[in-house]
Amino acid sequence: MPKKLPQADMPAADYAFYGLVWAGTVMTERVDRALVRAHDLPVSWFEVMLWLASSPEPVPASVLGNSTMLSRSQVSRVVDALQARGLVTRTPSARDARSVEVSLTAEGRRVFERADATRREVLAPVFTDLLDEQDIEALGTVWRKLKAEKEKLGQEPTARATRPPR
């Protein structure tokens, strides 16, 4: 008789949670390797560029900190690095003199478009080619629900939250 897989005995919520963690980790590592190799662009830089490319107007730096999976200090370092490469610009906000807005430069848009094509190509065999439209919509629904709850609570995930108490 075949041996039962351990996850068969795992509660459904635990199995789903670890499945999300596993999938996110595997796909992020896969995309990161491809983006660094092809474009010298870490996935964290790409994530910031993705949010900027998705916005028709410059994005306040604080919004990037709230939108990405990066901390505000990480966003600041990424924006510094992208600016040093000529991929983004920072401009004083017209709405709030205390803040700056970030936007892609023309070169940043070109680099983003090439990197996005690489990301899509790398993910296709392990994501978009495997999942149908309903699967992708369901994942989007799950993500929106989880993100909305995080925003409602006003909490940033931290490394300490994933460690067991001492």
Automatic annotation (TrEMBL):
Residues 1-148 form the HTH marR-type domain. One of its GO terms (biological process) is response to stress. It comes from the Bacteria. InterPro entries: HTH_MarR-typ, MarR/SlyA-like, WH-like_DNA-bd_sf, WH_DNA-bd_sf. One of its GO terms (molecular function) is DNA-binding transcription factor activity. This is HTH marR-type domain-containing protein. It comes from Streptomyces lucensis JCM 4490. The lineage of its organism: Bacteria, Bacillati, Actinomycetota, Actinomycetes, Kitasatosporales.
